[in-house]
Design goal:
Oligomer: single chain
Strand order of the largest sheet: 1-2
Radius of gyration: 22 Å
Distance between the termini: 46 Å
Strand content: under 5%
Number of strands: 2
Shape: globular
Mean pLDDT: 76
Helix content: 55-70%
Number of domains: 1
Order of helices and strands: HHHHHHEEHHHHH
Structural class: mainly alpha
């Protein structure tokens, strides 16, 4: 059945041309290779201007892709893609704060944050493909799962409103405990390398542990975001492509907002409103007829209003607090900052793991000298 401009298909479709899947996959791989081997071959600190430029590039590409979807799948599906893309983009902002905390805790300089996020995105793309495939299969076979997804999103929204823990505790992360126990680990960063060779043996560096923690945080983020996108559409192509475009632009968005992340004090209320709205919508849209194009437009509008209102109010309030503090003679600090390296280049969470000793009891210290695998920089080593 051809796509309709006035009705939205929530059932899993079979009308997406294979070449459209293939073309999108080629595009994603090409952009990742271009980024790693051409544009960012040498490690460097990403400036705010560069981050802004790339954010505009990714958003423009997403809009152009929406036009492609509209041409080959109909305007209704193009609007669904944009709604899903904006939803994933909004939810990802909260994840950026977690990235900032992780980088700051481990003392990763901005020069190598880009490298970690690049490989983190590659892992996220693979994991999202698996999660979305499983989710689409489950929803297709058991439609009542949509009610569970909706209830989970409403619960998450309520929890987000009353969650007073502003900063996650990275120090007790199970990945750090795992690394301490089972991996040979160097006590300092080795440039941009994830692994180094010491006396013929492969040692992990703290940067690899940071990558693992970042990857795990994205998995936790997907637990919320994937059920939410299924509340917009169950079309696997639209779900996957909107997710991927949001992820591809995540790194540029991080470097753009890293310095002002602390200003968004009310963002969690906006995200809670969005999750609650989508969760409630899943009950009604699944129980009755398929939503009309007007309903999809309403969903898109609600996400825009909730996100812009919460972020706008946050900026106004934090600036007012800063002005009052300055007037009172206090030094107001309203924004977060990018992570800075700790003296000596040591990763504090892993220093204990690298204490000299045998391998039988867990990780041991790397020999002080030896060639770094792939060279001293980050661009030529193995991952």
């Amino acid at each position: 059945m051809p796509p309709s401009a006035t009705a939205v298909t929530h059932a899993l479709p079979s009308g997406t041309p294979l070449w459209l899947w293939g073309g999108f996959s080629v595009f994603v791989v090409a952009m990742l290779l271009l980024d790693l081997f051409v544009l960012n071959r040498n490690a460097h600190a990403v400036s705010r201007r560069e981050a802004l430029t790339w954010s505009i590039v990714w958003i423009t590409m997403a809009l152009l892709f929406a036009v492609v979807v509209g041409v080959f799948r109909g305007f209704a599906n193009a609007e669904l893609f944009l709604t899903g893309y904006l939803l994933e983009k909004a939810l990802s902002v909260d994840n950026l704060f977690v990235f900032l905390v992780i980088f700051d805790y481990f003392g990763v300089t901005q020069e190598y944050q880009h490298r970690v996020l690049h490989w983190g995105i590659v892992g996220a793309l693979l994991l999202r493909a698996i999660f979305i495939g499983l989710g689409a299969a489950i929803v297709s076979a058991f439609h009542w799962v949509m009610y569970i997804f909706g209830a989970f999103l409403v619960f998450t929204a309520i929890k987000l409103c009353f969650d007073t823990e502003k900063e996650p505790d990275v120090s007790n992360h199970f990945i750090i405990r795992f690394v301490r126990r089972f991996m040979r680990l160097t006590d300092k960063f080795e440039g941009g390398n994830f692994f180094v060779l010491r006396e013929g043996r492969r040692w992990a560096t703290p940067l690899f542990v940071v990558l693992l923690v970042i990857e795990f945080s994205d998995v936790m983020f997907a637990v919320d975001s994937i059920p939410a996108i299924f509340g917009i559409t169950t079309d696997p192509f639209l779900v996957y492509t909107s997710n991927i475009f949001a992820i591809l632009g995540l790194r540029a968005l991080y470097f753009l907002l890293a310095g002002v992340m602390g200003q968004f004090v009310y963002l969690h209320y906006g995200l809670a409103a969005i999750l609650g709205f989508v969760g409630i919508k899943m009950f009604f849209s699944h129980a009755g007829e398929h939503p009309s194009g007007l309903e999809v437009t309403g969903s898109l509008g609600f996400i825009v209003v909730a996100l812009s209102t919460s972020m706008g109010a946050s900026v106004v309030v934090t600036r007012r607090r800063a002005a009052l503090a300055a007037a009172a003679g206090g030094a107001a600090s309203t924004g977060g900052g990018t992570a800075t390296a700790r003296p000596g280049g040591e990763a504090p969470a892993l220093a204990a793991a690298a204490a000299p000793g045998g391998e039988s009891g867990g990780a041991s210290a790397a020999p002080a000298a030896g060639p770094t695998e792939g060279g001293e920089g980050g661009s030529g080593d193995k991952n």
